[in-house]
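Quick one, probably user error.
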């Protein structure tokens, strides 16, 4: 992650070229989900027999939005995510191994001065997991609130005999979709996984082992971190990052000093 450098010192062409389109696609998916959810509830208000025109229009709009949401979701997973993560990994390996795997290189994204490739790689992952777990935890505060609010409302409606079964079915369809419960669970898993990787790396650096001894643990952490990000499919919030960047950078400097990381 990035320390609080001036704009002239810091650059991330990968984010601008590859992650911005991914972020826009993710945002459009969220809006399509809201539209599809609203249309599914509206469809219950139009009786097919007494209001056939209104019911047909709502059902058609719902089908279009649902199909568009599905297609965009698949394009995001199969195209935008790999397209963004590929250059990011190449930049990461270029920094850690002193190679030039891509001409798109970040400046100020990784912050350690280790010369040994193994220690440099481990320090970079240690820094990344520090930022990732903190940012996801902050994002989870609102996600948890809204998810549990919806779950409580749905359970309340489920226990009330007067609630129409159609409303409960539609609410369940919305609640247990990719954008609500599934997203919350993936975020919780990503937080736990990055915290585990971070703590394991702290133990590795705290052992003062040689790079040769550290090597399998470091590369194992790299594989685990990249797998966790890919499985979760969660974009980090730029607003949360900007808000906590200074404090997390200060914490990273403290970790470096404590664990003798250059």
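Nope, works fine. Designed sequence:
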């Amino acid at each position: 992650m990035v320390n609080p450098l001036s704009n002239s010192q810091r650059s991330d062409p990968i984010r601008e070229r590859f992650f911005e389109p991914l972020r826009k696609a993710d945002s459009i998916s969220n809006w399509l989900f809201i539209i599809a959810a609203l249309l599914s509830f509206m469809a219950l208000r139009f009786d097919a027999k007494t209001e056939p025109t209104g019911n047909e229009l709502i059902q058609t709009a719902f089908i279009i939005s649902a199909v568009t949401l599905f297609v965009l979701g698949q394009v995001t997973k199969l195209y935008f995510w790999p397209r963004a993560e590929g250059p990011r990994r190449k930049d990461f390996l270029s920094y850690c191994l002193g190679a030039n795997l891509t001409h798109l290189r970040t400046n100020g994204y990784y912050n350690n001065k280790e010369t040994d490739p193994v220690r440099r790689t481990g320090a970079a992952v240690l820094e990344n997991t520090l930022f990732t777990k903190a940012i996801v935890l902050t994002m989870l505060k609102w996600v948890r609130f809204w998810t549990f609010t919806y779950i409580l409302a749905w359970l309340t409606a489920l226990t009330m005999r007067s609630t129409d079964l159609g409303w409960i079915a539609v609410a369940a369809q919305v609640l247990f979709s990719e954008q609500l419960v599934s997203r919350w669970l993936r975020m919780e898993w990503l937080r736990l996984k990055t915290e585990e990787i971070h703590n394991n790396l702290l133990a590795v650096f705290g052992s003062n082992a040689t790079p040769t001894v550290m090597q399998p643990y470091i590369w194992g952490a790299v594989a685990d971190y990249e797998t966790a990000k890919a499985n979760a499919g969660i974009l980090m919030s730029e607003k949360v990052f900007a808000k906590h960047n200074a404090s997390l950078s200060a914490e990273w400097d403290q970790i470096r000093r404590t664990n003798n990381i250059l």
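Confidence is low (pLDDT under 50) at residues 1-8.
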